[in-house]
Design brief:
This protein is α+β, with helices and mostly antiparallel strands and about 140 residues long. About 30% of the residues lie in helices and about 30% in strands. Strand 2 and strand 3 form a beta hairpin. Pfam families: OsmC (PF02566).
């Protein structure tokens, strides 16, 4: 795996490109002279956790013939204050899935992802406690 970063301005804005060819903008916060032109590097780690686990969960539920009508993830994290580097110490991931889903299958898929399959979670577990919760929103009745 390879990624390339190219500096865009004279401050902290970079465009990153991976093997997929899709560009991602990265920037520092305005407090350090950034321009809000991209995600912060630590935000990208949390996005990676959400993306990695969601791919696992969808794959598992598809194999079980579960219909997923909607899927949202919220990731909240706390960093160790006053330390350099300031690592994540607590991360909570909340999954919200919609559709005619079996809640026990959803629970098992999430557990399998975060405890076994998700490489990003495996990395973050080395420095942080990761907790999770989920909710299943019933499928909406078709409009007549």
């Amino acid at each position: 795996m390879e990624v390339n970063l190219t500096r865009v301005d004279q401050d902290y804005h970079f465009q990153a490109t991976g093997s997929s060819g899709i560009e991602v903008n990265i920037d520092g916060s305005p407090e350090i002279g950034g321009h809000n032109a991209g995600a912060r590097p630590m935000e990208l780690l949390l996005m990676g956790l959400g993306g990695c686990s969601s791919i696992d969960i969808i794959q598992i539920l598809k194999k079980q013939r579960q219909q997923i009508d909607s899927f949202d993830i919220k990731v909240n994290a706390e960093r160790t204050p006053g330390e350099v580097p300031s690592l994540f110490k607590n991360i909570h991931v909340h999954f919200k899935l919609g559709g005619p889903l079996d809640e026990e299958k959803v629970r098992k898929a999430i557990d399998l992802s975060l405890d076994k399959y998700c490489s990003v979670a495996a990395i973050l577990y080395k420095t942080a406690t990761i907790t999770h919760s989920f909710e299943v929103v019933p499928a909406k009745a078709p409009v007549a």
